[in-house]
Task: structure prediction
Amino acid sequence: MIKKVLIANRSEIALRVIRACKELGISTVAVYSEADRESLHVKFADEAVCIGPAPSRESYLKIPSIISAAMITNADAIHPGYGFMAENDKFVDICDDHGITFIGPSADAIRRMGNKSVAKDTMRSAGVPVVPGSLGVVKDLADAVKICNEIGYPVMLKAVAGGGGKGMRMVQSESELKNAFGMAQSEADAFFSNPDLYIEKLVMASRHIEIQVFGDKHGNVIHLNERECSTQRRHQKLIEEAPSPIINEELRRKMGEVSVKGAKAVGYYGPGTIEYLVDNELNFYFMEMNTRIQVEHPVTEESLGIDLIKEQIMVAAGEKLTLKESAPKFHSIECRINAEDPENNFRPSPGKIEVFHAPGGHGVRTDSHAYQGYVIPSNYDSLIAKLITRGATRSEAIAKMYRALDEFIIEGVKTTIPFHKKMMTNPDFIAGNIDTKYLERNDWKSI
Result:
């Protein structure tokens, strides 16, 4: 069994892993940048090591510093959380070279799913439905023009190494393509050091549905139902829920079965997420696979009454899966509480939290590293907390969420709480009529 875990991350996910380790009787090591010296994950870990100054590239992305911290503390495993090192295949190889267990999938699985073009080809071969588009990387603009004429406009240009909406462009016509192609290449090169693009047919009025899969090192793979992630702004998720209000039992079974096939095709173990676009006719198409624990994993946990992080650690240690496939037991919703000003185009709002009161009560969960007096750094993402509610029905979960948001008091910085309260009373959201472009078509203040 794993004896000591170093968490190569920060904020709420680091604290989440620490809690799971403590419940399993495993010692923990926090790493932190100088900007995170006062973060709760540093205070609650058994040991803590400063790995550099505030910039991520000099701390949380600096592999030698992380490995050194593991070696000097005798950590025999590293949990990467999400982001930073979570999908870095080279980091996994280095962990293996040093005899450190990486709590995540193999480097090969990360490599194959990290290249969006290879991932699409792999899933197509495994029988997973994919969006019509290019077979592999688009060679040049002339090749792009030919492909778009074959599949028809509108299309999406996507970076093969992309994520977070970077290196993506929607194109409505050939005249737009000529300008957008070069811009997408430049952005992809700037963010991922890889300018390669692929093309997909744009699925109109689509929902963003993801399937949680989980495998072990003995070849067992299961699915744990779906999450609805369609409430987005600029390709960034704001609200997630499980189960989806549009997925019926038959579609859940079908999406789960093909997702398991896709995961088995890459020898996947640990928790992973296969993401799909679902159109108005409930046709679904593979988008990508995230080879890590997701930000929104708590909605799956709450809908089923399970602990994904504990299971992830045990699977990494070589244990067989203990989780079983089952229908959702509850409805769960997660709101991302960010330090952003929704009144001013969601502008970041770093600074000192003067007042912090987290909500509570039956069916309410708050995952956060913040507290009164905590200073939100400007160096990292703006997530303050994840607020999760659970109810016997979707309407009960929504009612609890509104009540919990009303109790959540954060002063000193602007937050997305007003936006979420508005969404919880929005007739379209209540009816489950939200697609990925909803917030582009509607001003949240007037809905």
Q: What stands out?
A: The CA atoms of residues 245 and 432 lie 6 Å apart. The longest helix spans residues 174-192. The two ends are 52 Å apart (CA to CA).
